[in-house]
Amino acid sequence: MSYIADLHVHSRYSRATSKECTPENLDLWARRKGIHLIGTGDLTHRAWRGELLEKLESDDKNGLYVLREEYRIRDAGASDAFIPRFAVTGEISSIYKKNGRTRKVHSVLILPSLEAAQRLSAKLETIGNIDSDGRPILGLDCRDLLEIMLELVPEGIYVPAHVWTPHFSIFGTFSSFNSVEECFEDLAPYVRTLETGLSADPAMMGRISSLDSFHLISSSDAHSPSKLGREATLLNGKELSYRALREALLEGEGLEGTLEFFPEEGKYFLDGHRKCGVCLTPEETRELNGRCPVCGRKLTKGVSGRIDDMADRPQGYQRTDAKKYESLVPLPEIIGALEGKSGAGVRVQRKYLDMVQKIGPELEILRTVPLEDIAAVGGERTAQGIKRLREGKVERIPGFDGQYGAIRL
Predict the structure, then answer these.
(1) How far apart are alpha carbons 94 and 145 in whole angstroms?
(2) In sequence order, what are the residues at sequence separation of 6 or more whose Cβ sits closer than 8 angstroms to the Cβ of residue 346?
(3) 117 with 35: CB under 8 angstroms?
(4) Please, how many CA atoms are within 13 Å of residue 159, restricted to the half-sphere of its CB?
(5) Euclidean distance between the first and final Cα of the chain, in Å?
(6) CB of 40 closer than 8 Å to CB of 280
(7) 311: left (phi over 0), alpha (psi -120 to 50) or beta
(8) Residue 36 predicted with pLDDT over 90
(9) How many CB atoms lie within 10 A of CB 406?
(10) Which of 132, 144, 171, 172 counts the highest number of beta carbons within 10 A?
(11) Can you tell me the distance from the alpha carbon of 356 to that of 364, in angstroms, rounded to the nearest whole number?
(12) Facing residues of 406 across strands?
């Protein structure tokens, strides 16, 4: 069976997240989007784990969970054709000194049960405050975090998160590890999967030969339920279980590919200085010695520039053995652009829900639904916009220094 997974999400207990991030709403939006497997997020937070224990139930002992029937929100715009499964996941922010530099790295942990999450959390709470934020900040070397997980939950999966984000990632400009081995030392063989992040895609990462052996996944890192699936992972296996998920992420068995943002739409695609309105290519940044031409301060190096630093292959290089990936734009953004409205506006959301109700889940509309079916409900312009998206015929306005880019159809 083929299914879509979004494993990096957050609860309402994480900083800067929506109060709507509840198990009920995550289940609801997973059905609206067409996501079959969703992360719980925030596994270390005591109150969130308590809520998960109350509202989720084990799915036949296979290491995944489903929302209890009494909590399911009945909604005409949410398909009942499938029941989303939950995998126990969470993100840890590690801030620590290593080799004379301050490192700030985010990691996603995926565990086989809520009981395993409790065991791991009991250890981590002796190291730092894990209840103040759903994504706790710990002064813990990533290598040591991995070691703790392997000792307490050897079946766990460790994934460096959004690996190119400048401020909080393994390869980002400000952490500047140049390899998985440099970060994890003797435990590097246990890290086999990397998360691409919004400002990069597999083709960009393919320019770095040292990353060829890693499996790539994508996730939304959603801070509100409506953002689920903006990036996701395509899987194919005989069963929907934790065991099959682990084989896919660690061995590549059943890992089909990813659904991606256009990387230009990400907040850190190019170099720049948002305060001064300066956006530059890596070549332009080098000519300016990394300094803002307006204020003279150091520019924030974006993902493109950082990949340029590490790349040993030219731009446009394509691996013959690479997994497939598709670049998408969220359906509300398409509707909003065509109507000259905000994607979050009432009118756009009304049309979005009408399309999902009458046609099917959002990701199916974007990827596979016949254009004539889309036109019959959403109108001919919407169908043509999605046709251009599928063909990659888009205008790309790049993001930089924390400012989202834009994709125009």
Answers:
(1) 9
(2) none
(3) no
(4) 28
(5) 32
(6) no
(7) beta
(8) yes
(9) 17
(10) 171
(11) 9
(12) 397
Label each residue of 108-131 as H, E or C.
Answer: EEEECCHHHHHHHHHHHCCCCCCC
H-run or E-run covering 330: none
CA-based radius of gyration for the chain: 21
Distances (CA, A) of 286 to 240, 276, 322, 324, 401: 48, 18, 30, 33, 16
Two tokens at 250? Answer: 């660690």
Helix-, strand-, coil-residue percentages of the chain, each rounded to 5: 35, 20, 45
Residue with tokens 């590690």: 94
pLDDT of residue 65: 98
Burial 290-325 (b: 16+ CB within 10 A, else e): eebeeeeeebbbbbbbbbbebbeeeeeeeeeeebeb
Distance in angstroms (rounded) separating the CA atoms of residues 268 and 300: 8
For the stretch 112-160, pLDDT in tens is 999 999 999 999 999 999 999 999 999 999 999 999 999 999 999 999 9
Distance of CA 332 to the CA centre of its chain: 18
Token pair belonging to 237: 């296996």
Cβ neighbors of 151 (< 8 A, separation 6 or more) are none
Whether the model pTM is above 0.85: yes
DSSP 177-231: --SHHHHHGGGGGG--EEE--TT--HHHHTT-GGGTTSEEE----BSSGGGTTSS
Residue reference for tokens 């991030």: 21
**How many CA atoms does the CB half-sphere of 261 hold within 13 Å?**
30
Token pair listed for 113 = 């049960």
Q: Which residues pair with 57 in a beta bridge?
A: 66
- pLDDT tens readout for residues 330-343: 999 999 998 888 88
For helices 46-55 and 23-33, the axis angle rounded to 10 degrees is 70
Question: Could you tell me if 13 and 45 are in contact, meaning their C-beta atoms sit under 8 angstroms apart?
Answer: yes
Cα–Cα distance, 278 to 107 (Å, whole number): 30
> Counting beta carbons within 10 angstroms of the beta carbon of residue 244, is it exposed (0 to 12), middle (13 to 18) or buried (19 or more)?
buried
Distance of CA 43 to the CA centre of its chain: 16
